[in-house]
Amino acid sequence: MPSGLDRDAIATAAKTLAASDLVLADVYQRLGPPPIWSRPATFATLIRIILEQQVSLASAKSTFDRTLTLCGGRVTAPTIIGIGPTGLREIGFSRQKARYALALADDVAGKRFRIGSLRHLSDDDVRSQITARLGLGNWSADVFLMMGLGRPDILPIGDLALVKGIAELDGCVYDNLDEIIQRAEPWRPFRSVATRMVWMSYLDRRKSSPQ
């Protein structure tokens, strides 16, 4: 299944969402349509997503940049395997994340995981393929689906910025993730775009960027 989002599609979807949701209408009026925030659908992007788990985006980017330098500008399965666990630890990977990165590299090198084929799969099948990898859960799969593959209807409910951002916009506290899912149900089939709008508002309050 091909990518469904580009800048024009995001702008159109954001306008549609703003017309049906008062909270998103306020975001749209204040900030306009959200950025595309895309990444290549590659092994390197999955390594960066591993680094972003449970740490600040700035910290993850710093470690990824060091990885990119050590890999000679191309983060690939062979270059990660070549660095090895000790080398990864030296540039900022935790022991656990080094293990995840090397397991992913082994799966790619052994052709047990073909990242290039993911663009042809359904959202659910992509999620199943990614979450079958060590250390990659639903949040990681959702970020890859949204940013790497441009899928239009992804709700990354494990994303703290999304959960906090919705609560801030709605001016309430949600007791559990099921309530977040229910709140976002009217955003179908553009939950990826609604998520970007929530992120945009969340980041604007803090004047930062997810990139």
UniProtKB/TrEMBL annotation:
EC supergroup of this enzyme: hydrolase
InterPro entries per the UniProt record, alphabetical: Alkylbase_DNA_Glycosylase/TA, DNA_glycosylase, HhH-GPD_domain
EC number from the UniProt entry: 3.2.2.21
Residues covered by the HhH-GPD domain: 51-203
GO BP, one annotated term: DNA alkylation repair
One GO CC annotation: cytoplasm
Annotated coiled-coil segments of the chain: none
Name of this chain's protein: DNA-3-methyladenine glycosylase II
Phylogenetic lineage: Bacteria, Pseudomonadati, Planctomycetota, Planctomycetia, Pirellulales
